[in-house]
Amino acid sequence: MPIVFAAGVSHAPGVTAWTEEAPVDQKETIYAAYAQVAKDLAASGAESVVIFSSEHWTNFFFENMPSFCVGRAEHYDGPVEPWLRVPQMRVPGDPALAREILDALYAEGIDPSYSDELRLDHGTMVPVHFLLTDNMKPVVPVIFNTLSEPMPSSESCFRLGAAIGRVLEQSDRRTALIATGGLSHAPGERRQGEIDLAFDEEFMANMATGNHDALRSLSHERMAAAGGGAHEVRAWIALSGAVANWKGETVAYEAVKPWATGFGLMEFHPAA
Amino acid sequence: MSAYQLQKLCRAVNSDPAARTRYMEEREAFVDGFDLSDAERAALLSLDIDALYDLGVHPLLLRPFTIINGVSQDEYLAALNPGT
Fold this sequence. Notes:
The structure holds 2 protein chains of 2 kinds. By secondary structure, chain A is of the alpha/beta class. Chain A has helices at 14-17, 24-43, 95-107, 122-132, 154-170, 197-209, 212-216, 220-225, 234-242; strands at 3-9, 48-54, 68-71, 75-78, 89-92, 113-115, 139-144, 175-180, 246-256, 261-270. The relative contact order of chain A is 0.23. Chain B is mainly alpha-helical. Chain B has helices spanning 4-15, 17-25, 27-31, 38-45, 49-54, 59-68, 73-80. Chain B is globular, with a radius of gyration of 12 Å. In chain B, helix 1 (4-15) crosses helix 2 (17-25). The N and C termini of chain B lie far apart (30 Å). Classes of the chains: A alpha/beta, B mainly alpha. The interface between A and B is medium-sized, with 18 and 18 residues.
């Protein structure tokens, strides 16, 4: 069975850590959207979930910074942040599927790193919390370097995603694909709180229509201008490569000032 | 100086409970365990957030590091934007 579900979701930690600081209507819109995505994911019958994600200095640092790392552990513990207000959990892994992905990528000359022990921070645990708590499935996290320059290009992310998409289409597993990160935000920066609405609108539109030329050529500089956290949309670009013929539909988008982020959720479906 | 050692110190405090305890209890000795410039050492010991930022500590290391030091969000942004 092929990919049976795909979605992109933001994971900025305010959604759980500072929930009450958001205007009630924005908070309810985002929580309802996450509930909708969780319901649709469960209904898809996915057996495993591949998560294109980013981390925040949890496993990797300047002494060794992979562009991409495929998790092939038996399980993952998270979140590492005690202040996140997401319950501690042990998330089952899918090492067999991870190995299937790695073998196929290496065979075609794409060589991500891999790890048998990853701790999960909010970058992966926020989506796991909202989407899988009531419908836990084994996961394969794929961590992207979105922290340290140089970072993988949009083109490189797209090609990685396309290659993983080909593996999943031929796998015996029914898989769901989640991309997480973004949108515009600048956590910890001098300009924290600024949200680049134009960036978010254009990016979501390009994801929805599958404008691959625009996504593959999205520059590091344009992402940086939308805030350091906007580099995380590389995961979404990879998803676009994996489900290249699918179209996206926005489930919700809110620019949430108290969480200092543009927060978006989008589901993808095969073009009719 | 690449700020590598400076950022390594911040990451240790952020993510390693034993390092955090040493930082809290024996700050100078802990700081002297890293190969820092004089400016980096001074900025750390006085928790000069603006200076640490300009010395190149990544924002996603610096903000958690200041949370551990009891710095609120408003205080953090005020330190980075003096005069606003």
